[in-house]
Amino acid sequence: MTVGFIGTGNMATAIVRGMIAGAFLPPDEIVVFDPNADKREELAHELGVRAAESNEALVAESDVVVLAVKPQILPLVLAPLAAQIADRRRVVVSIAAGTTLAKLESLLAVEGADGGAAPVVRVMPNVNAMIGAGMAAVCGNAAASNEDVAFVVAMFTAVGQAIELPESQFSTYTAIAGSSPAFAYLFIDSLARAAVAAGMGKDLATQIAAQTVLGSAKMVLESEKSPWDLIDMVCSPGGTTVAGLLALEDRGFLSTVAHGVAATIARDQEMTAGS
Ligand SMILES: NC(=O)C1=CN([C@@H]2O[C@H](COP(=O)(O)OP(=O)(O)OC[C@H]3O[C@@H](n4cnc5c(N)ncnc54)[C@H](O)[C@@H]3O)[C@@H](O)[C@H]2O)C=CC1
Ligand SMILES: O=C(O)[C@@H]1CCC=N1
Q1: Pick from 50, 104, 112, 197: most CB atoms within 10 A?
Q2: Are residues 21 and 136 in the same domain?
Q3: Which of 121, 143, 170 is the last residue of a domain?
Q4: Which family does it belong to (predicted)?
């Protein structure tokens, strides 16, 4: 089984690193191509995966082709590859935001080909896959078999967690899992900067804030309690926490987060409409 990655930028690098670390496939069953030779060769050298000379060479030897380029250039990338991808059954996996299965099918369609639509599996991963802590949503088109989808779920489970999700929920999912690591990084940095304002060193404050957010996320995942129950657990009557919580709500923390999520969903839907 050979998995080829078209594009070795932030996300593909995170996934490939996680796949190697999670021993999902041996390095010689992963092949990468990127026109940026430095990125391509650096990844190949670092992880022992194979670097193809072109996308065409990558497709020729891949059973699964992962599209890890920016959504805007997918038409440009796929136009010269569609016939080759269709010449034998290959599974196409796209991680492109705002790019539907229907759009991908149209970009892969080959005039007169009798094979019908190519098996396409859409994934929304996140960058935390780099350390094996990713969260991915997966959905396949009608031509994708249960085994195809299961393989992709397993691939992303090797770099964190993966769930099957109806494509109709992908915009919302992108907001709270694809993009939200940036929101979480912002929250951690905001906690740290506030500590710096109070006189603590930035590196120490960042370590403290990050570990506390990590522990809090694990508490939500592993305790039987809801986030609100956990909040109540921390809030001592008349204590420090409730003073901070009320100040956060005074500035509209909850509605601000909801506003950010809505903006992300809107942008994904804009991209979907334009794709
Ligand atoms: N960065 C993230 O956290 C996430 C990104 N994604 C999606 O992953 C995809 C890639 O995003 P990033 O990795 O962040 O972008 P990136 O810009 O870091 O990587 C894209 C790579 O594609 C390469 N490329 C450009 N033209 C190419 C071609 N013709 N053939 C092969 N490679 C080519 C570029 O050289 C670049 O290295 C996007 O569709 C994005 O929506 C999805 C979830 C999370
Ligand atoms: O910002 C983006 O468009 C990509 C998709 C989700 C995370 N990064």
Answers
A1: 104
A2: yes
A3: 170
A4: Belongs to the pyrroline-5-carboxylate reductase family.
CA of 132 to the centre of ligand 1 (A): 19
Per-residue confidence (pLDDT) for residue 87, from 0 to 100: 87
Q: Which ligand is nearest to the CA of 122?
A: 1
Is the pLDDT reported for residue 115 higher than 80? no
Return d(Cα 99, Cα 209) in angstroms, integer. Answer: 35
Instruction: Identify the sign of the CA torsion 174, 177, 181, 184.
Output: positive
Among 114, 61, 69, smallest CA distance to 96 is for 69
Count structural domains, the chain.
2
ipTM surpassing 0.90: yes
Q: Which burial class, exposed, middle or buried, applies to 81 when counting CB atoms under 10 A from its CB (0-12, 13-18, 19+)?
A: buried
Do 9 and 124 share a structural domain?
A: yes
CA distance 259 to 251: 13
Answer whether 9 contacts ligand 1 (Cβ < 6 A): yes
The finding on whether 271 has its CB within 6 A of some atom of ligand 2 is: no
Look up the CATH number of the domain holding residue 51: 3.40.50.720
Do 20 and 141 belong together in one domain? yes
The torsion angles phi and psi of 21, rounded to 5 degrees, stand at -60, -35
The reply to whether 84 and 141 lie within a common domain is yes
Three-state SS string over 15-28 comes to HHHHHHHCCCCCHH
The yes-or-no verdict on residue 114 having pLDDT over 80 is no
Residue 23 and residue 177: Cα distance in Å, rounded? 24
Residue whose CB lies within 8 A of the most ligand 2 atoms, among 72, 99, 124, 174, for a mutation test: 174
Q: What is the mean pLDDT of residues 102-122?
A: 87
